[in-house]
Amino acid sequence: MFVAPVNTESLFAQAQAETLYLNLIEQINKDFNLANEGVDFPMSISPDELKIQLHEKIYRMIQYKFAEYLNLLYIIDVPENEIKQLDGSDLVILAEQVAFLILKREWQKVWFRNYYK
Fold it and tell me: What is the mean pLDDT for each group of 10 consecutive residues in the chain (117 residues)?
C-alpha cells in the first residue's frame, strides 16, 4: 500500500529502498520536458543534489516564468488544494515546499506504475 512520505528525506529513502530512485529521476525529466521546461537531471545525481537543483528550478520559475510554472504543476498533476495551503510570503520557502509536492506526486506515479505493472 502506498504511504505518502512526510518529507524529502523519507521520500528518497523509500525510493532507494525500493530501487526506484532512477525511475523517479526519469519521471521528473519526462514531465518537465512535457511542460517544455527542459531539465536533464543525470541518472547519477545524488538525492541531495536533486533536491537542491529542483528547488532552484522551481524558485526561478516562480520568479520569472509564472505561467510556465502553473503549466508544470498542471502537467505533473500536483493537487491544487495542497498548493493553496502553502504560505507564499517567502518565495524561497514556497519553492522548497512546491519542490517537495512535485517530488511527492512524481514518486506516487512511479510507485503505482511499479506496484501495478
Answer: 88 94 97 92 96 97 96 96 94 97 97 92
